[in-house]
Specification:
Chain lengths: 326, 294, 337
């Protein structure tokens, strides 16, 4: 890429202190997203996709610690930024929407006010005008009768409407990067499609880069230009979408694709990948966390993984599938 | 780590329970301290009257109102009585009141609650009504009313304390009984022909006991405070009987003239006892059900 | 919304009926002859017989009960033996003293406990958190009358900062003209700052005693509630939106966390109304608590019964008020109704 990426995560490592030991949730995670690009972060539950997003935004659990890496955004390393700088970036430059929209909204505050809070904080909007602009945002995310809805509470709205409100909150200050963490989980199938369309439309309208976090490889295939596959806290492969599906190089990616027979299935249904996620509390984790369940394992796989390269199709594997495989 | 004996099966795994208890006490020094303190209080209650240096009731007006000294560790009161001896001897009375109240409320509230939860229907409604009516009163005020109405005796303090704690035990016991109503061992008992009441008393109540034990320790502390409070305003214990609450009342007037020791030492004894039972309750909760730790 | 408030009013009726029945029973379970109790220790057989007739004690129990309810409806709570005056008059004239003391104590308590709870939750594991935990455990163990005495000893006897614990006002002052019965308010409305200062200085120690007693449950509940709310999804969203720390902690977290604290206030009032009696005795405060205690010592039963009934009714009303406030503040309850 010639142009500087919108966000560049380099070597991010995160640990959690728990009662039963230290969980090495992320190890040396790197990826980059270009301005206006749509990317998907794909992996099973527990692969560390949400943790990555939380780390970038600085909203990790108090029990978590970033043990290394950088997250470069607009020349600023988010991981070592001061709280004041970070609070300016959050919401204004980088925004995030979450799964379970109803619990992610303040239950005792009218939704219009929640949008207005962000407008006042980041949008240089004086208090008097914020309510009206909030109503406009509700209209922009496709909520009918926005003036009345602005005074409503989350419990009075459906899951789909709550998700639209969350999108309105996230986009109120017109950020340049949106992180969407499983935005359609918990919604019915028709609403899922509608919400995804809404996000895509708004993203292209605002020229906003988007990271979709999902366990649904098929969904990622439909919406993202590039896919980053994660497994047990590692990035195992990263490639443009068509390339990934046509020529997957990491054994895990290939298994994932093979286990997704049609566009409706999601990764959580698969029974065909042998073995299971390694226990991330172990102190003797191998450098490649997939090696213990990998059919292509070599002795060489005991070495530290190859470093991230800047090629468009990166794979973290000593024995990747040959280029001509399909 | 060994599992705690699952509370759905009656009284097995006692050895495992004791092992777990030892582990919890060892792990948390504060709990260990509470247990040690409890033993101390128990000893004082049991043999206190025999080991005190002075007769708690013997007055010696010549030695009245003396501050703490070598001869009188806690000083003397207006009648020249040795406060240290009185405080130690009072342990027996306060401890007995607390234990009696707690046992009474466990039987009353535990049984009523289990019956309400197990039988449901009218039993549940009536027990619930009674509990709600009790809770409609500020508890100490109700205790005052009960002791004033039934007569100014120690037994009535015990009864009043039991009554005002009744709703709490009913609630806990009822919830547990509800859960266990359909449990396997209850079905087995029913099928082998046990009458409903046998099931309630022999099967369910013993299983409800561990959860209530935690509450009972906390109630001990509260019962002591309640009894002391009632005695402070002249209900229950009469002079010259040594009891912590009444001793504080006797020393109250002297505070203004600076003779602090008369009220201070019984007050501290109260504090220490209540604190001990509260910590004990927390420790017991960790032993019985660590999931409920707050 | 008015319908839901009305509905709540209706639910307290069975509670009030229960309260009235209990206070009635309390007088009829006296060991021996109730008439003797009501006539007093110095009564002659004739006056005892008179009392028995006037109280209807020779009637069957249900008739007695109706008689009792009828009396209540007419505001007749019997007469005090000591003064010969109607109990209800005494209660009414002494109620403001107790109310002022309790409210003062509660306000101090809330002003300390809630910030303490919030800070303990926000800075979990810090010294503030540990202080909060110690305060909570200590507050539950301290006998309230002992705390009062300790405060008197330290601040009056040793340091001389506080006035003598002899009631609402020093002998040299007279009560301000009665508007509310609250000396603090009445002295201000009369523009009498001397009396205001005097009343305030008398209020501080007994108020602090009550406050110390109630800080524990309020702080503990605030801390627990804040911890739960701070870990919630919507606080995470607020943080992710970059809202200011004040907005996140107060507008988003605290407003949600305060709801369980309001319900806790019901339990706190139960303790406070009981502790009030003890504090009034320690500080010679002329409220309804000390009225009942004096009557108890004199075996004067009607005031005690009147006191228990009054406190219970007050408590029921306070709980109703808390219930209604909760319903107004929480939109989920308000709109569901």
């Amino acid at each position: 890429m010639n142009v500087a990426p919108a966000l560049s995560v380099e070597g991010l490592s995160v640990e959690f202190r728990t009662r039963s030991g230290i969980v090495r949730a992320l190890d040396n995670v790197s990826f980059a997203i270009a301005k206006g690009e749509t990317m998907a972060l794909v992996g099973e539950s527990g692969s560390g996709k949400s943790v990555t997003a939380y780390a970038v935004l600085g909203i990790l659990d108090p029990a978590a610690r970033v043990t290394g890496g950088k997250a470069m955004f607009g020349g600023l390393d988010l991981l070592s930024a001061k709280p004041g700088q970070l609070a300016d970036v959050r919401g204004r430059e980088i925004a995030m929407i979450f799964q379970n929209p109803r619990t992610a909204l303040n239950p005792i505050r009218p939704v219009g006010r929640q949008i207005a809070d962000v407008l006042i904080r980041h949008g240089n909007v004086p208090g008097r005008e914020a309510p009206a602009q909030a109503i406009e945002m509700l209209r922009a995310v496709g909520i009918t009768d926005p003036a009345r809805r602005a005074k409503a509470y989350p419990f009075e709205m459906s899951g789909g409407m709550c998700q639209r409100v969350m999108i309105a909150i996230a986009l109120a200050a017109k950020p340049s990067l949106l992180i969407a963490d499983e935005p359609t989980t918990g919604l019915d199938v028709t609403t899922q499609a509608v919400i995804m369309d809404l996000i895509s439309d708004l993203a292209s309208e605002l020229g906003m880069a988007t990271i979709f976090i999902t366990h649904d490889l098929a969904l990622a295939g439909q919406r993202a230009a590039r896919i980053v596959v994660m497994h047990a806290g590692h990035v195992v492969e990263s490639a443009p979408t068509r390339e990934l599906f046509a020529r997957p190089r990491h054994p895990y990616t290939a298994e994932l694709i093979a286990a997704t027979p049609d566009s409706a299935a999601s990764l959580d249904d698969l029974a065909s990948i042998p073995g299971s996620l390694p226990d991330l509390r172990r102190t003797d984790l191998p450098p490649c966390r997939y090696s213990e369940r990998c059919p292509r394992k070599l002795d060489a796989c005991g070495r530290p993984l190859p470093q991230t390269d800047t090629s468009a199709h990166h794979v973290a594997c000593w024995n990747p599938l040959p280029m001509s495989a399909s | 780590m060994t599992d705690i004996a699952a509370t759905t099966r009656p009284a097995t795994g006692l050895a495992a329970l004791i092992r777990h208890a030892r582990y919890v006490i060892g792990e948390n020094p504060v709990t260990g301290l509470a247990f040690a303190l409890f033993i101390l209080i128990l000893i004082a209650a049991l043999i206190g009257p025999w080991i005190v240096p002075h007769d708690p009731l013997a007055s010696d007006t010549a030695a009245a109102l003396k501050p703490p000294s070598a001869g009188h560790w806690f000083g003397t009161d207006q009648l020249g009585r040795d406060i240290f001896s009185r405080v130690v001897v009072a342990t027996q009375l306060d401890f007995t009141i607390a234990i009696a109240s707690v046992v009474l409320v466990f039987l009353m509230g535990g049984l009523a609650g289990v019956a309400a939860g197990y039988f449901g229907g009218w039993t549940d409604r009536i027990v619930g009504r009674i509990a709600d009516t009790i809770m409609a009163f500020p508890l100490f005020v109700l205790a005052m009313g009960i002791v004033a109405a039934l007569g100014n005796t120690v037994q009535n303090i015990v009864l009043a304390t039991a009554i005002i704690n009744f709703p709490l035990y009913v609630r806990v016991a009822r919830a547990e009984a509800n859960v266990r109503r359909e449990a396997g061992f209850v079905e087995a008992a029913r099928l082998s022909g046990n009458s409903e009441w046998r099931i309630v008393t022999l099967q369910i109540l013993p299983n409800v006991f561990p959860i209530l034990v935690v509450q009972m320790s906390l109630t001990m502390g509260y019962a002591i405070l309640n009894a002391a409070g009632l005695s402070f305003i002249g209900l229950g214990v009469r002079p010259p009987t040594p009891e912590w609450g009444i001793m504080v009342a006797e020393g109250a007037a002297n505070i203004i003239s600076g003779e602090w020791w008369i009220a201070f030492f019984p007050g501290v004894a109260l504090m220490v006892a209540v604190f001990c039972f509260n910590l004990l309750g927390d420790g017991l909760r960790d032993i019985v059900d660590p999931r409920r730790r707050t | 919304m008015f319908v839901s408030i009305l509905r709540r009013f209706v639910t307290i009726i069975p509670t009030l009926i229960g309260v009235i029945i209990v206070t009635f029973l309390l007088t009829r379970v006296l060991p021996g002859d109730p008439a003797v109790y009501f006539a007093g220790p110095a009564a002659t057989p004739e006056s005892i017989a008179d009392i028995r007739k006037s109280l209807g004690l020779d009637q069957p129990l249900p008739v007695q009960f109706l008689h009792y309810v009828d009396d209540l409806a007419h505001g007749n709570l019997g007469n005090s033996l000591a003064t010969g005056q109607p109990v209800v008059n005494e209660l009414i004239s002494r109620l403001p003293a107790s109310a002022e003391l309790t409210l003062f104590g509660l306000i101090i308590s809330v002003l300390i406990a809630i910030p303490l709870g919030i800070l303990a939750a926000v800075k979990q594991g810090s010294w503030i958190d540990h202080t909060c935990r110690v305060v909570a455990t200590a507050g539950v163990s301290l006998p309230v009358f002992f705390t009062g005495l300790l405060l008197v000893y330290v601040f009056y006897f040793l340091l001389g900062w506080a006035p003598a614990p002899l009631g609402r006002l020093d002998v040299f002052f007279t009560a301000p003209p009665q508007v509310t019965g609250f000396y603090l308010i009445d002295s201000l409305t009369a523009g009498d700052f001397q009396t205001f200062r005097a009343s305030l200085s008398q209020l501080i120690l007994p108020g602090a005693t009550l406050a110390i007693f109630s800080i524990a449950p309020i702080a503990r509940m605030t801390r627990a509630s804040m911890l739960a709310v701070l870990a919630s999804d919507y606080v995470r969203t607020a943080r992710a939106s970059g809202l200011s720390p004040y907005t996140v902690i107060i507008t988003y977290a605290f407003r949600n966390a305060v709801l369980p604290v309001i319900t806790t206030l019901g339990m706190v009032f139960s303790f406070l109304l009981g502790a009030n009696v003890l504090v009034e005795k320690v500080f010679a405060w002329p409220g309804i608590g000390s009225f009942a205690v004096e009557a108890l010592i004199a075996s004067d039963f009607a005031p005690v019964q009147g006191f228990v009934l009054t406190m219970a009714v007050l408590y029921v009303m306070l709980n109703l008020l808390i219930d209604i406030s909760y319903g107004i503040i929480d939109p989920r309850v308000r709109l569901e109704a």
